[in-house]
Amino acid sequence: MATKTDKTSLESTQLKDIISHAKEYGFVFPSSEIYDGLQAVYDYGQNGVELKNNIKTLWWKCMTQLNQNVVGIDAAIFMHPLTWKASGHIDSFNDPMIDNKDSKKRYRADVLVEEKAAEYEKAGDLDKAQALVKSLARLLEAEDLKGVQELIISENIKCPISGTTNWTEVRQFNLMFSTQVGSVAEDASTIYLRPETAQGIFVNFLNVQKTGRMKVPFGIAQIGKAFRNEIVARQFTFRMREFEQMEMQFFVRPGTEEEWYEHWKQIRLKWHEAMGIPAEKLRFHDHEKLAHYAKAAVDIEFDFPFGFKEVEGIHSRSDFDLSQHQELSRKKQQYFDNDLNEEGKPFGNYVPYVIETSAGADRLFLMTLCNAFTEEEVTEGDATKTRTFLKLHPALAPVKAAIFPLVRKDGLPEKALEIFDQLKYDFNVIYEERDAIGKRYTRQDLIGTPYCIAVDYETLENNTVTIRDRDTREQQRLPISELSRIIGDAVSFKRIFEKL
Question: Which positions bind ATP (predicted)?
């Protein structure tokens, strides 16, 4: 038996293959599919929700458990409308949109230009790609929408549907969903579904600082739903209208923000590598255009089948958010720093600066799925076939182990269920007895289960089982009493923590 891994498996894998796999094996379904679905909205299936929850749990533990100065909250989705006035979302949370008159399709103008730049980069013309990105950033910074339209025309950017350059003018489109709150329609007030989770942290800054007796520097983490009425929502779970964010706002003393920005840049990149993402599939991408309040901003990008795209952002936000809320609410958002006196400086109140780390749970899910999707050629005797499996980190795998009786008689199912009952309190395990055992192995490979445990007649004699490794397909005989230790060691988050 020989195995030859296709070195271009990920590069040659199309996104459609991963989307098909995700649906067929219970990871992601189109939302309300029986009614033909809803664009850019997805439901996580039985395996997808386990994988996504494992990613979120890993992030949460790494933030709040490994850092003694980071705590978590869970803020409400609905917030007072003035929250979004203070944050700038009501006035400036817009994307530039453009329509093609022939196809009647709407696009984000900046995305069209960025995709053209990516074409130049792929063709090896890096100078042209960088010049195009800088031109776009300059035009957006100046809010020159006419210039953006002229750039699209001058670059001969065509509509992917109609193939024409018959474009409308570029217009701004606010991305927030609004709704009404109140029992009587005429008395109802307009509120918004939050477009980000960060503001829930900022408005609770003093609540957490005082009740937790937190000292600057400290962080507040949150995982939660956010909503954006995206002009173009595509590429599966990469860009959706309803999504989950994992954000941490780290409050620092003014003047120290640069060192903390560099600190969190490296910590977050290391986290992605620790969860099993190859270093060559990750890169930093500094923002060409900074938000008006930002001092620095960088994206961590992953090499998806559709190119390098952002999975997490690290931003130095200055004191903008807390200062804005302080001004509009007329309630001080300041910190009294006792430590300044110990350093020979006078006591003082100040509005802390903020370093933000913001990751999309759905994007990390897609990154993990794309990275794990593996196709390799397997030779058994004279036959060669392609083996497909998900090479997930065992700590993230939806199912940790599957227990199979060799046959459905002679007491083997009862013994296998006994093992299942022993392991189920510590791990997410499943029991399966249908079909030939080879087919059962294949099904578990396709959902990324790291271990399969076979119960046979020898098990009844000496309480040993055969355990099969997903990646190598190697099998070993060991006592049932060893299973919990072997599985537990492999699937523990500690294996990831050790790399941080």
Answer: 228-230, 238-243, 310-311, 360-363
CATH number for the domain spanning 118: value is: 3.30.40.230
* H or E stretch at 312: strand 307-318
In 3-state terms, what secondary structure has residue 230? coil
Q: What is the pLDDT of residues 130-165, one digit of tens each?
A: 899 889 888 887 878 999 999 999 999 999 889 999
Least confident residue range of 43-47, 176-180, 423-427, 471-475: 176-180
Q: Could you list the residues known to form a binding site for ATP, using ranges.
A: 228-230, 238-243, 310-311, 360-363
Domain identity same for 354 and 417: no
What is residue 107's predicted lDDT score, i.e. its pLDDT? Answer: 86
CB 454 within 8 A of CB 466: yes
Task: Provide the annotated binding site.
Answer: 108, 196, 228-230, 238-247, 310-311, 356-363
Q: Which residues fall in the annotated binding site for substrate? A: 108, 196, 243-247, 356-360
Residues 410 and 488 in one domain: yes
How many angstroms separate the CA atoms of 454 and 473, rounded?
Answer: 13
User: Max Cα separation, the chain?
Assistant: 81
For residues 258-281, give the mean pLDDT: 96
